[in-house]
Amino acid sequence: MRAVSAAPSFDPREVPVVTIDHDWPAVPAERLNAQALRARFAAPPLWTPEVVREPKFSERAPADAAVLVPLVQHDDGLSVLLTQRTAHLPTHAGQIAFPGGKVDAQDSGVHAAALRETHEEVGLHPRHVEVIGQLPVYITGTGFHVTPVVALVQPPFELAPNPGEVDAVFEVPLAFLMNPAHHRRHAMDWQGRQRQWFSMPYLQTLPEASDPVERFIWGATAGMLRNFYRFLLAEGAGQETR
Question: Does the 32-233 domain belong in CATH 3.40.190.10?
Fold first, then answer.
């Protein structure tokens, strides 16, 4: 029987950091508001995604998936709603992720799948969500072809996380994630080749905890956020920054 490769088992926090992009510019603040984001997706600039495909870890058949990139509108700016997956899930267990999942046959498309999966996963009702666009497909090492669907989310709203899938739901300021001074590049050797990825660790202050909780954003989620950064950083038609 043919052996099926599996994702490497390691603690990503212990993998060496190759570099931190301190010399890259942050996305200008005037691009990080609802009106500017709507306009950018309506007339996107010329740009190239930086992270498209991870090294293959599995022989499973490719599967289409969609995630929601929920940008919550607060008076002091936008934040990104993320989840921490439970430790027992068969793929990407325990990792920080966007809400989402497989595209089902009854879904009319990736937007519908992202909204449905988000509602099932964290209880965010579609009536609070305004889809404004999508980013290029990101192919994970486990065979998922993931479309990130970007949306604005209007509070107030209630969440009801599915305990079978989600350990925690939290928000990270969009400005933090769109500043490459917080983007760390890691590298390690696995099965005779080097694997590289981004991480964006965020320290979350919780009212019930004396010390901040580290939310270690890495892998596919960090890769899609890096692509979002490149999209928002790009200049007008025919131009790209760096």
Answer: no
